[in-house]
Amino acid sequence: MITSDPGGWAPQLVVLCVDGGKMYWIEKSGVGDFSTVFDHEVRSVVHELRTVFPSSTAPAHASFLTGFPPAEHGVVGNQFWDHNLVSDIRYRMANPLLHIHPYENRSLRTSSLLDDISSMGLSWAAVNFPHTFNVLKPLTSPSTYCLYAPRRILVLPMSGTGQSTEFFGEKVEFSFIRNDGTEECEIEVDGKIWQCGEEVRKFWIELFSGHLSVSARCFHNDQDDSISIELGTSVLVLSTSDFCENSAADEGPCSTAADYPLGEGINFFESPRVEWVTETALKALDRWHPDIIFIRYNQADHAQEYLYWLLARGNSAEQAQARYLIEKTYGRIAHNISLLASKIGPFSKYLLFSDHGIDWISTRVNPNAILRALSLEQCAIFQGDSNCAYLYSDEPLTGSDLERLRKYIEKHVPGVSLCSAKTELSLGLPVKSVRVGQVALIAASHIEFDYDAGDIFSRVHAASHGDRPRRSAMSGFLRSRGFGSIDTLDTVEDIHITDLRHIISGVMTSQLCAP
């Protein structure tokens, strides 16, 4: 068991990512303030942590682990492709499991902190942490990672005729069995019986790809004698073999209600729950006794993506409600990290960080609609990140087609420009890499690329990351315990996310060499 007793066991290092966490909210909510957890503890300093371009989860986490910018580690955005045909890209984009590779370890083109740990003879485990897992060829260290699918409502005839819906490329059939005279119904789901009523309950669905946690409730439609089953945001848990035994349904990672009931967040059920991340980390520590554990809480990022525009640009009532919900989310994370630390104890080192920041978005630009306007959509497609879009094509576009693209954007799409090789270099992107496509587009601040169907422009009340790291809005935070001067000196300046591999490896090496 985990113990804070010096004669017992505890991990040497706990790495905690609060995805999207901002210095202000971290300090205000007390995330990582262990002076409230351990006796005689000094409150540690929260530092600004500079990130990379694009300042999004996959590239920034890759830089955290490798110590390199995207030009070297190769993870050039939350989405990119290697030698895929346009038709294959379109097919894969319909299933999140088929375009998860930017978050997988196999996408890294350099060594990483995981290699350093192994070379020291140390072990590690990971919970919901990018680049610590592979779907097709699992790593030897224990890890688990979550994907989510959107909320949906199915209408089931009381005749028992089944209706199927697709989760991560797998069809799951639902059919009404009977109503026993109460408000509850029996619903058959892929051969298993659910007792389902108007009160939301949690269930597990076994998919070939992993365990799917989903909340559900049923209600009767009097007008057409049918049953509607509402499925909340569902969570697919991808784990290495025997990572943890499957928990009871009510302990699964899905949530039972919308956590951010404003604007675009009205249909999103937090996935995975803060508490599930903590519980899973504790189970992993108990079972595997890793020397180092990597844990990622991604809920603050979700809250900010749905609420930050309202906080920054909304009316006074919207600002107050958005502030309350963001603070509530950070507060839950702070409480859970304190709980985790109280279980692990004061004999471990702790490093907390965020990969990027957040800012408001007023305009979305669909670069694939630009291709449609130029009749190039059959042979080319844009994919990429929030502020950089990469052009992929089966055959290189001709010089005349690229010139038409440049002129169209210059004339009709303000705030977007073609990226030169010089600009790519300055942004830390690789030049002449298949992953950045034939050309790249760059969006200005407060503009976000959207790759789904639709018009070129859409006005939105949203928030995102991915912009240039020179903007402090894109910066994350760093807070530590057991890392010397970084813990307590507020004079430590200009810490970059690419510094952390070296810092962690240095501290762990020193600890191993200590008498």
TrEMBL record:
Gene3D superfamilies: Alkaline Phosphatase, subunit A. InterPro entries: Alkaline_phosphatase_core_sf, Phosphodiest/P_Trfase. SUPFAM superfamilies: Alkaline phosphatase-like. This is Type I phosphodiesterase/nucleotide pyrophosphatase.
